[in-house]
Specification:
The chain is built from 13 helices and 25 strands. It is of the alpha/beta class and 531 residues long. The strands form seven sheets. Strands 7, 16, 17, 18, 19, 20, 23 and 24 form an eight-stranded antiparallel β-sheet that branches. Strands 1, 2, 10, 11, 12, 13 and 25 form a seven-stranded mixed β-sheet that branches. Strand 12 and strand 13 (237-249) form a beta hairpin. Helix 1 packs parallel to helix 13 (511-530), helix 5 crosses helix 13 and helix 11 packs across helix 12 (451-461). The longest helix is centred in the C-terminal third of the chain and has 20 residues, at 511-530.
């Protein structure tokens, strides 16, 4: 018996477990389907490039065939290890735009405005640049500048400035617009995942139990219909753990709606079709899925051996880099590959940036699962606030089966128009004079010149940049799943605390906002426990 049972040891789950167990009188259990161990590929920042290729720490989901992507199935990697996706991502620390959070509050979610969430961002953060109005120190999440930035990145920044984009030294300051180098969740040349940040200090506490290899199969309810525990499967079969106060779902935009539906909470007709008794008919569970759809331009740069690449000079550099990282945690292996980028507007009339760039110091194709010989560079452009909405549904009543994920990418014509304009802006930067001496062939997209050709290229290549959200939407409406304090509607003793509660996806990478959501929830959990 515990006070809280947390389902999912990803970013939000680690925050919840670490923070709630700070009170020795509170008993906490954290369930994680993946392993507890942290292999070298997680600790080594550039090791994440291998994690998309292997399934050991990655759910490796596939989407339903996407009509907007020429019928292709998209790839949806999500972390399956303590730390979740913070253990396999590119470590970029971004919060989004203040207007994102003010928009949440304006939609009927008190407590979520920018001025109210900023203190939770600051509480979580230890920024190596020091404290200030927009940065905190002393928090568990270490935020740092790259220890060994690649010199080629300066050429990208110069090219962007030649195209009229301003240099921004701090994307998490007053205004994220512009181009610059990302800060990362690293410490002393190693990845600083949510598990290292929040669970590391907590693992010796007697009131915290972490159970890895535990795949949650359903939520348990008492006779009054209150969430009172979780059933899970491990190597020994089916087990149960009891929650005296609340069950907290932190399974992410795919896992949380799936577990709700497996437990009889969701769209009634869908549950009945699956043969699952309906406990609470909540049509919004699994609705409203949003993601940052993204397309990449790849450029050959044969002589740029300081870039990542497969060549004899490149392999020699990599071998030297391994030794350097082992000695002093510096050099190429501290890179997150996507070292720089920016926030730009698809049209000057846009009130805030609606596109994001990620500049990669290598030729990135198919999420890194396909290797190209030689050296080169890439740039992503993603749509920050898509209008397309998708769904998460059960494929089967079997809890071990993957959910059906249908983001409906580019189903809204406005999303297509903005991404086509974004591709043109990205191409302008990569073809600017500053990159001319190193620019070789434009791979895959060279023949895409007019809008129709660019749209065809986008539909043939676009996919996620790994930010699914919104499938258990927070809000006061009939189609919303949780209230502003993240309590599941119509079901006592149960909350959802992860990126799935975002009413609208934030304009930037989603890991830091997910950590903030959990920090925000901890305050309310403590308040409600005292009431």
């Amino acid at each position: 018996m515990f006070d809280y049972v947390i389902v999912g040891g990803g970013s939000a789950g680690c925050v919840l477990a670490g923070r709630l167990s700070e009170d020795p009188a509170v008993r906490v259990c954290l369930l994680e389907a993946g392993p507890a161990s942290e292999p070298l590929t997680v600790r080594m920042p550039l090791g994440f490039a291998l994690l998309a290729r292997t399934g050991g720490l990655n759910w490796g989901h596939q989407t339903e065939p996407q009509a907007g992507l020429d019928g292709r199935r998209g790839y949806q990697p999500r972390g399956k290890v303590l730390g979740g996706s913070s253990a396999i991502n590119a470590m970029i620390y971004l919060r989004g735009h203040r207007a994102d959070y003010d928009g949440w509050a304006a939609q009927g979610n008190p407590g979520w405005s920018w001025d109210e969430v900023l203190p939770r961002f600051l509480r979580a953060e230890h920024n190596e640049r020091g404290a200030g109005p927009f940065h905190g120190t002393g928090g568990p999440l270490n935020v740092a500048d790259l220890r060994s930035p690649n010199p080629f990145v300066a050429r990208f920044l110069e090219a962007a400035q030649q195209c009229g984009h301003r240099l921004n030294p701090d994307f998490n300051g007053a205004d994220p617009e512009g181009v610059g180098v990302f800060q990362v969740t690293q410490r002393e040349g190693e990845r600083w995942s949510a598990a290292r940040a929040y669970l590391g200090p907590a693992r010796g506490r007697a009131n915290l139990r972490v159970i890895a290899g535990a795949h949650a199969t359903r939520i348990l309810f008492d006779e009054a219909g209150r969430g009172c525990g979780v059933e899970y499967r491990d190597a020994g079969g089916l087990q149960q753990v009891q929650a005296g106060r609340e069950v907290l779902l932190a399974g992410g935009a795919f896992g949380s709606p799936q577990l709700l539906m497996l437990s009889g909470i969701g769209p009634g007709e869908h549950l009945q079709a699956m043969g699952i008794p309906v406990r609470a008919d909540l049509p919004g569970v699994g609705e409203g899925l949003q993601d940052h759809v993204d397309v990449t331009m790849v450029i050959d740069s044969p002589g740029a051996h300081d870039l990542l690449g497969v060549s004899l000079p490149g392999m020699g550099r990599l071998l030297r880099a391994i030794g350097q990282w082992r000695r002093d945690r510096r050099g190429l292996l501290t890179s997150n590959a996507g070292e720089a980028g920016g926030f730009i507007r698809s049209d000057p009339a846009e009130p805030i940036p609606d596109l994001q760039l990620h500049f990669v110091i290598g030729k990135l194709v198919d999420h890194g699962r396909r290797t190209l010989l030689g050296h080169g560079f890439s740039c992503h452009v993603c749509l920050l606030r898509p209008r397309s909405r998708g769904t998460v549904r059960l494929a089967s009543p079997d809890p071990m089966a993957a959910p059906r994920i249908d983001p409906r990418f580019l189903s809204d014509a406005d999303d297509v128009r903005r991404l086509v304009r974004g591709f043109r802006l990205m191409r302008d930067i990569l073809h600017a004079p500053a990159l001319a001496p190193w620019r070789g062939r434009e791979l895959f997209s060279a023949d895409a010149r007019d809008d129709a050709q660019i749209e065809a290229f986008v539909r043939s290549r676009a996919d996620t940049i790994y930010h699914p959200a919104g499938s258990c939407r927070m809000g006061p409406g009939a189609g919303d799943v949780v209230d502003a304090r993240l309590r599941v509607k119509g079901v006592a003793g149960l909350r959802v605390i992860d990126a799935s509660v975002m009413p609208t996806i934030v304009g930037g990478n989603t890991n830091a906002p997910t950590l903030m959501i959990a920090e925000r929830a901890v305050d309310w959990l403590r308040e409600d426990a005292r009431a």
